[in-house]
Write a structure and sequence with these properties.
The structure is a homodimer.
Chain A: H1 14-22, H2 27-35, H3 41-48, H4 52-64, E1 68-74, E2 79-84, H5 86-89, H6 92-105, E3 112-116, E4 119-120, E5 123-127, E6 139-142
Antiparallel strand pairs in A: 1-2, 3-4
Helix pairs in contact in A: 2-3
The first copy, chain A, binds a DNA duplex through helix 3 and helix 4.
Chain lengths: ~150, ~150
DNA sequence: GCCACAAGGTTCGCATATCGAACCCACTCG
DNA sequence: CGAGTGGGTTCGATATGCGAACCTTGTGGC
């Protein structure tokens, strides 16, 4: 689970660390599918469109990374399904942010709507400490330099 | 700029569309670097740790995708640097979300702090419409099915 | 008992992508 | 004039990704 940041090229950075875990072509789509209720191999396969072998490898890697949990729901024949762990659920903001960007810049018609309380979500990052929107006025303080 | 959602495998989805643009290994790291003030090829090269040829290809693709803008700041010798477009700046929430996740689940010591108003940012995704946090109580309404 | 079919993968051989290292070109500086 | 810098391209080896076929353990139909 601990991908060492130091093994990655470039600036030492949690973004790079996160991408090392979920930054490949299929990982976030897998998380999306599981979060939408697709728990079985074949459902995730259909939803993502990934090649079978890639999907098998990704599922294993995501389980190893602590993003997914594999549950055996039948022993004969052996059958498992996949669920999000807390770490996996905590990726939902990433998906939400990507979706919002995709809706705006790549899709003509947003294909899926996220709703709650009866309206379509349009969300922003808000700082928990001061309650203001997180925007461009943030400073960055590197604590290390590579 | 218009990556057609329909050309992608799997479920028709803006997340997949966004990932088709910025979902490769280096794209988001490039956006991170540019947002941190690295505008020149060599700075981005150093910050990301990408191979030169990959970086050149990515920069071109990101310019074509409308995420970056290339500005020639010298003609003799020809020199350009790269800046975020509005679409590029709108990716910052994605980076913020990834960073927060990485800080939590992969880094031991968060290497970079995002600060504003003198404190470290700890942000949540908040719905603009109703002001509530976006959490797990969201419903998803598919408008199409593939 | 026999055949077809399903789930959840694994194996195979080929095609593409990615890699680091080396090279290139147009300048500038000393 | 020779070394150095910025911004790349080219090259050959390796890694990764791919679709198609196959495998295994079972279930249901007849």
């Amino acid at each position: 689970m601990t991908t060492r940041l130091d093994d990655l090229p470039g600036r030492r950075c949690s973004i790079a660390g996160a991408l090392d875990v979920v930054g490949d072509r299929w990982a976030l789509l897998v998380v999306r599918e599981v979060s939408l209720g697709a728990h079985r191999f074949s459902e995730i396969l259909r939803g993502t469109g990934a090649p079978r072998e890639r999907l098998a490898a990704r599922l294993t890697a995501l389980v190893d990374a602590g993003v997914l949990e594999r549950r055996e729901y039948s022993q004969n024949p052996p059958r498992s399904d996949y669920h999000l762990t807390k770490a996996g659920r905590d990726l939902l903001p990433v998906l939400q942010a990507l979706m919002q960007w995709g809706d705006r810049y790549v899709a003509d018609v947003p294909p899926v709507e996220l709703r709650h309380r009866g309206h379509r979500i349009q969300a922003s990052w808000v700082c928990d400490v001061c309650g203001e929107r997180v925007g461009r006025d943030t400073e960055r303080h590197a604590t290390h330099e590579s």
